[in-house]
Design goal:
mainly beta, six-stranded antiparallel beta barrel
């Protein structure tokens, strides 16, 4: 049985990152992806050399350092949501789920020539406060029971509400006396990797040279010392992958184009093999630059991948070669839920945040959105699979389109 609670922002007792960062936190300088190094096809591994006190599989965590800089007034909406999620982790634990009604905006900017296009979120044209008008939290208490908390901004003056549960994870929340409603979803798109693989027979993920996914290059299998990033840079690649990484300065972090505002900072490195004779599907190893506090402060944005709309049948991020969790979010238009409602403040969808844990996967289907942040100072690496068709129970998670 789940338990639900209603509260104001005040009852949550958030600092919400409004306290100034200490000099010690600022002194923990991150490695930055400088312009000169970003343009190089192959980077000097020593540039990202870890302090000897760290383990080889655990990039240095940035801890509780506010996302998007130390000034809450200059953070963009994406960074404000990242900071709200971070504060909730402090209160409820690493496995908390946050769902926020937002307005998604799309663009026609496809920076990598695939189906994914840059997007942005905000709190609607009629809401001028830094934090959203409403959000919901799912968390477990000390006995492992699932609880929910529904939080209205105090400016709304809401004291009572009607709550309607739709299916397993969607809630329609209507303040008393209102015509409009808020909708939230606790569906994260995240499942254990073993559960994901149970639905895909081995033959559909076999590569050449008797390799199989996940991790066909066995980066996370032990052996050579160093971080996943260092291993990838030194790796002798199987046929089909590019041997030198494709390097970018920004990952879906502009809206609506490179002439627009920054929604995220930080670059990345990618090794990819296309679907065909060498691989059963498009497969990528992508590493994301560690947190850059100076760039976050400059643009008021979080380090990571900005919100983007998935136009391919599906894209899955696998946290299979690292030991750190990754803050990630799934976005859906309300129209995709099959529920009719009058959305409050023109908010047309919901953004649902949860930490993608090691040995978990994050599946985003066509016409959904996703976002993720990088919480470490060192580069953090993932696998990415691109599906052939939209995942269903009968088509091996979109890897067998014959059905």
């Amino acid at each position: 049985m789940s338990q639900s609670r209603f509260s104001y922002f005040a009852c949550v007792g958030f600092a919400l990152g409004f306290a100034s960062m200490t000099a010690l936190a600022w002194a923990c300088a991150s490695h930055t992806l400088s312009d000169s190094k970003a343009k190089r096809s192959k980077l000097d591994v020593s540039f990202y050399k870890q302090p000897t006190a760290m383990t080889s599989r655990a990039p240095a965590s940035a801890g509780h350092v506010p996302w998007g800089g130390n000034n809450p007034q200059t953070r963009n909406p994406e960074a404000r949501l990242a900071e709200l999620f971070q504060e909730l982790q402090v209160k409820y634990g690493d496995d908390v789920v946050l769902s926020v009604p937002v307005r998604f905006q799309m663009s026609s900017f496809h920076p990598y020539g695939d189906g994914q296009s840059n997007a942005s979120v905000d709190f609607g044209p009629h809401w001028s406060y830094a934090l959203p008008p409403f959000y919901a939290v799912e968390f477990k208490d000390s006995l492992g029971r699932v609880n929910h908390e529904f939080v209205f901004h105090p400016r709304l003056g809401v004291h009572n509400r009607q709550l309607h549960r739709i299916g397993k994870s969607i809630y329609l929340v209507k303040p008393e006396g209102w015509i409009d409603s808020f909708m939230v979803s606790f569906e994260t798109g995240q499942i254990p990797v073993d559960e994901f693989l149970d639905g895909i027979r081995l033959g559909l993920r076999k590569f050449t040279q008797e390799r199989s996914a996940p991790d066909p290059e066995q980066i996370g299998q032990g052996g050579a010392a160093g971080t996943a990033f260092e291993k990838l840079l030194k790796h002798t690649w199987s046929s089909g992958y590019n041997s030198d990484p494709y390097v970018v300065d920004n990952i879906h972090g502009f809206f609506p184009s490179t002439e627009g505002r920054r929604t995220a900072v930080g670059g990345g490195w990618t090794w990819v093999v296309e679907a065909g004779m060498k691989a059963p599907f498009k497969h990528l190893y992508t590493c994301f630059a560690g947190r850059d506090l100076a760039e976050e402060s400059r643009y008021g944005a979080a380090t990571g991948a900005g919100w983007h709309h998935v136009g391919d049948p599906a894209e899955t991020i696998l946290n299979t070669i690292e030991s750190a969790s990754i803050p990630a979010a799934l976005g859906r238009f309300y129209g995709n839920t099959g529920v009719n409602l009058a959305p409050a403040y023109g908010l047309n969808g919901s953004a649902t945040f949860r930490n993608l844990q090691p040995k978990e996967v994050f599946v985003t289907r066509k016409n959904e959105f996703h976002w993720y942040a990088i919480p470490t100072y060192e580069p953090l690496c993932t696998e990415i699979w691109v599906h052939h068709c939209e995942p269903t129970p009968s088509n091996s998670w979109g890897m067998d389109c014959s059905n």
